[in-house]
Amino acid sequence: MGKSRASRRGRSVRLTHVDSRGRARMVDVGEKPLTRRRAVACASIAMQPGTLRAITRGSIGKGDVLAVARVAGVQAAKRAAELIPLCHPLPLDVVSVEFDVRQPRTIVVRATAEVSARTGVEMEALTAAAIAALTIYDMCKAVDRGMTIGPIRLEEKSGGRSGVWRRPGRK
Questions:
Q1: The Cα angle at residue 127 between residues 122 and 131, in degrees rounded to 5
Q2: Domain topology for 34-166
Q3: Domain ranges, ordered by start, for the chain
Q4: Which of 27, 134, 150, 167 is 20 to 30 A from 61 in CA distance terms?
Q5: Average pLDDT over residues 69-82
Q6: For residue 56, which of 97, 96, 104, 109 has the smallest C-alpha distance?
Q7: Which residues pair with 102 in a beta bridge?
Q8: What is the mean pLDDT of residues 135-141?
Q9: Has residue 157 got a pLDDT over 80?
Q10: What percent of the chain has pLDDT over 90?
């Protein structure tokens, strides 16, 4: 194992969560300046058209699917450090979870997390999007066990030394 380098566009880059002997470690961010940071992540969930209609009509037996998924996503972002080893706990300033219903069979979850901190907020946004999608699945599995979640991906981030990053093809 012992390697702590990876390649990024042909350049060797140091992996921050691995020490020189290849052991996992939490990164020391104590000397980094506080900066405003923002991350946006999305998760898609595909389902049968009838399931999507039932969600939008509010006729799923467990209740308002999107309202519950929104709250679950926000709660998940606040707990990312408990779920992901080596993830720093962050004092989140805001988390929002929105839904883009794409007829006839897809919901795209869009989670945004913001913080003033020494480290990024990407994991919180990704966790919010993933858990919101999983909550939709949980609330609808009685009528559609064939739902598919994915992709789950970072769409953009800003703040910190690396500045702004946007997924290619985004404006």
A1: 155
A2: Alpha-Beta Plaits (3.30.70)
A3: 1-31, 34-166
A4: 150
A5: 98
A6: 104
A7: 106
A8: 98
A9: yes
A10: 77
The average confidence (pLDDT) of the chain is: 91
Q: In the numeric block, which tokens belong to residue 92?
A: 């989140």
pLDDT class of 147 with cuts at 50, 70, 90: very high
- By annotation, the residues acting in catalysis are 138
Contacts of residue 66, Cβ cutoff 8 Å, sequence gap at least 6: 55, 99, 107, 136
- Rounded average pLDDT over 115-135: 97
